[in-house]
């Protein structure tokens, strides 16, 4: 009678809920009312029935209806929960009825897929899960059922708890923590029969996600021993989905906990984990999808151990180093190499994750770095160094994800490892078998293989190999000035010896960059696959130029390089990433420029940026680059939790790669190679570049001309020798200028011949990118020579006009000097005549004897007063004009004028006053 009263009250309130929510969800009032009546009838029989068989029969029919109909699920959630919970409390002795109640609960919480359902509509399973998990008493009741002796009661209870965790994870985690011995009861299920054990394992896997307190309790209950005991029973990696669940549970426990990692290492060690990774050499056809997923789970465990814990946690580095050492002692490197390097028939996902584990194993660990450097792979007689084999994977694989993973190995190997970088850089040199790409590649040293990929790219058009080799080279020289200078000294025998000299490797890299750009413009269909080539090569240039003034000077040796980088940074044909990276290259040429040569110093580069790009546009390139590189961390994508729902997708990288390539304009390789570390490096570099460029333009550029030492008169050097030495210096400068003009003429003729050959058949392109670069260089030099010649012509005409003015002024001065000389001669004659008269008077004796000396002094004083002022003015003027004439003579000599011919007449005329001065001095004596 009490059950009847309770049911009617529940049914009365349920009618309003069903009519309001049911119509909104399903929109079929007739069908809904029919199923509601069935649910109500079955619940009435269960609640008010007196015959056990009839109640059990009603429970069975109710379970079938709820399992098939979403409307019935909603109706049951509104009316049936209190009734069936009451059955679980009061009818424990009726095992079959309890089983039916638990199975009905499981059906009510299981999602029913429909082809006509909308994704946004309310799901009855989710609503029912929320209703059941709202009261902690319900969870406690379910946990108590796990102690029942009946197998199916325990089995359906585990399933029901798992369904609740799937839909209401956080709420159930909090409830189980508050229930005494709640976790212990669940852990006991791992020792139950196999079916219940597997369900309990799945339940614990859900329960331990991002729940630190539950993880600690589970670990304290000895879960590590139980996990690997199950894995051993299932056959390690050859086991089924149970092994996958065990590894997922293990990864949940160690993902964000350094203490749990230490406990795993100290309790059972890493031997069981190594056993999961063991595979037979040559087992080409044994990689089923489930085995692949199991191995991925084990590799994910290794990666978590090598990470050491969450970032920022105290003791993370010490724990990581300890894990690296412990795993290395178990020879895990051999197993990782077999999976990632030697087993090219293994699934791509396995190879990629194994390579990443190799990188994390050696990262900043001197002992493991040394082991990898000495490691050999393969079987006799085909044995080669492991680093050579990994480099071959980078250069030959057709899968971008595998290239990224192998490149990550070199990134980790070279980071904070200057000795290893120097070792790899020392092997970079041309090899006698340079032309043989495949035949003797196994016998070539590491550096020769790398250099071959860089050098041969512009010949066979394989720009992707050049790009990948550039990425490896950037790791080798990063933050290592010794390696940068070592690689900078590499000279290549250029296939077009028209330049008459060998070609530095840095110049070849710029040539490859230009070829990649031209190939992308000519073949738009291939641009999506090759869109990462130019950014990766630009990254190499940035890494090379930073803190290396010699590299900056080498890059700027050819003006065409600077012009091409400016074009990359300014042209809208290229992506924001390419323009931004080119802007960083230009900034590095300013920031790390130590040259004092005019046209190649920091001010010249900054001035070219200002003139051809504009400072505002140039600085905007950095903002565009920052936005283009603002992507989710690739490490987060790679560390995605391995679960049953994601296992299949994670085991097939090729499919993911194709989807990502089609969906996004940016190639997925960029998002992984340009990691957060490199982005932060660019951000710091950008700040320094901005400050340096603004500092250059804020300073006044001094234009003080420094005269050569040859123009200064030496101590004790007589005028004749000084003039002779100046004359020789002027002749030398004239000869150099003539050689420069002849070279410019030769370049112009060569450019005309090249242009004429191309005009004969405009449909033919230059044979290679090198030809295009040389033509562009010649064109730039010719234009510069033309501008210089025009400027020299203008300056020459100005100097000639000024020289004529100075010549006329010199003639005037000469005339004034002659007039002064005539006056002086007249004075001397008068003086002579007076002396004669004095002598005559002395001889006659009749005339009073005059004071001759007084008369001479008076006459001389009067003469000096008349001419002293004019003479001083003329001498000062003559000195100033003589200085100007000397400077103009030097400049005319530089322009090729005959200086002696211009000065010949002036020198002869000005000799007369000098003779008069000598006569005057003799008379004074």
From TrEMBL:
Residues 374-692 form the Vesicle tethering protein Uso1/P115-like head domain. Residues 911-925 have a biased composition (Acidic residues). Keywords: Coiled coil, Golgi apparatus. It comes from the Eukaryota. SUPFAM superfamilies: ARM repeat. GO terms for cellular component: Golgi apparatus. Residues 636-665, 902-925 are annotated as: Disordered. It is found in: Golgi apparatus. Residues 775-837 form a coiled coil. The keyword Coiled coil applies. The keyword Nucleotidyltransferase does not apply. Residues 795-919 form the Uso1/p115-like vesicle tethering protein C-terminal domain. PANTHER family: GENERAL VESICULAR TRANSPORT FACTOR P115. This is Golgin candidate 6.
